[in-house]
Amino acid sequence: MARPVVRGVRAMMGTVKRAYSFPLAASVVAVVAGCSGVGMTEGVVIDGTGYSVGEVQEATEQLSEVSPEPVDTATVIYQAGIAPLLDGWFEGTSYEVTESEVRSSLADAGLEGDAGDLTVQAVSAQQYLAVINDQAAMSDEELAPVVAELQTLTQEDLGALPVEVNPRFGAWSPAGDGVLPQVPEWIVQPES
Description:
By secondary structure, the protein is mostly helical. The protein has helices at 24-34, 53-66, 73-90, 99-108, 117-132, 135-138, 144-152, 155-159; strands at 42-46, 49-52, 163-165, 171-172, 179-180. The strands form two sheets. Strands 2-1-3 form a three-stranded antiparallel beta sheet. A two-stranded antiparallel ribbon has the order 4-5. A hairpin with a 6-residue loop joins strand 4 and strand 5 (179-180).
């Protein structure tokens, strides 16, 4: 049975297979190209919206710029990946996070330049997660439907979110563990 995610969503935290029958030189090119994520040109696709590799890298840099600690790409993708779910839950409440609020908070935090859309999406999730971890806010009767959703949410539900990650950044875990590093099949792991 699927186990519920404790305290809601954890706050901060497909291999492409092809058969090649080309000569050896072409096979080597295909293997090297496979290292850069052949088959997926986007860095991540979240709920049908594609973000380029550059946008993923930009979001990571922007969040690192305004965070006390460097932010890794897996965290950015995870937060942006769960943002549509959280947006849906909080929509219409006084706790709803708007794009203009996020952009303003990023500017106040010292972000130079305009925040990218993926950055905004990740920060929206951070702000919702802060509300989820605020016991007083979650006691607000207005958020009773959100609390009900959180009580039924499982890690498998998170794993089933419509998120596709470019293999260069890892893979969205079907077990709900976020973005996991992806090791190509041709790399043999040493036995322990």
